[in-house]
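Task: encode each sequence below as structure tokens.

Item 1
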Amino acid sequence: MLSEQEIRSLILESIGMSSKSTTPHRVVEEFGMCLGESRIDIAVINGSLIGYEIKSDFDNLKRLPSQFHNYSLIMDKLIVVTTHKHLEKVKSLVPVWCGLDVVVKKDNTVQLLTIRKPRKNLMTDPLSLVQLLWRDELIEALEKSGRATNFKNQNKHGLYKTMLETFTSKSLKKIVRDFLFSRSTWRVDQSHA
């Protein structure tokens, strides 16, 4: 039986190996989203947002449908990493664009095997993406745009609305990824202090 920590270590090792010769990336564990409603086990931030959700032998799958609803709002690509115990059930619960890896333990080694490669998620939600930003990041983005005025005294919800009115969906994705990538610290509570 494989624990979540064993699987997490394997994923982190895999991310490190696969990213050495490609674009710079940032790895965030327990990445909060949807105003704290969900946390994905591992997020990789580079030119896109890639999420890894772990379902170990010790997990149940009761929350998976609601988790995937929220993950679908944010992640450009998503990979579920599970064990043979949950493989068939996970296949039936996750969207077809979602990647699926299975962890196999054989002869004292543990390996990740790709069952299905992730495809681009076409259903991200601009509001959910903007809600990942902290207040100071929202203000900075609006100031840099030069297009928005009278926003500094707005509450977060007003700032979200102004962001949606000021930028295209494509621009918002880039702005959010750039801020997330450049953060020097991550707050434990990512619900936008």
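Item 2
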Amino acid sequence: MSTDPELTPGGGPIQRGTEAPSDELPVGSRNAPKARRAARDPKRPGERCRAAPGHWIPVVDRAQCEGKAECVDVCPYAVFQIGTLTDEEYRSLSYLGRARARHHQFQTSRTPRAAECRACGLCVVACPEDALKLIRS
């Protein structure tokens, strides 16, 4: 029996939980328990971290995002970071969106490493505002 770790298609080791097969995820999430909870969500979209990088892109709805960093915590590929809305982004929001942005200190999720996305879907189900979706590139 081999003691080598099992690898994901991207080459990273699979982190196994005791729950269900959908609980498998690559090592790299900043908050592994939160990522495992997201992995068990039956509404999780995407390809369970099996897509090649760049085939899917995470899209942030700036009007919904409150910059709570759930996506940052669960993403095993460090696709996300929290940043500040630009003036242009802020001006493009509805009245309600601008009020929400002010209340949350103008924070929003950014995707500086979107090309590294492997369509885990963890970010989508972890986001409490439903501000994220995955689209095929």
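Check on item 2: The longest strand covers residues 56-60. Strands lie at 14-15, 25-26, 56-60, 81-84, 107-110, 132-136.
End of task.
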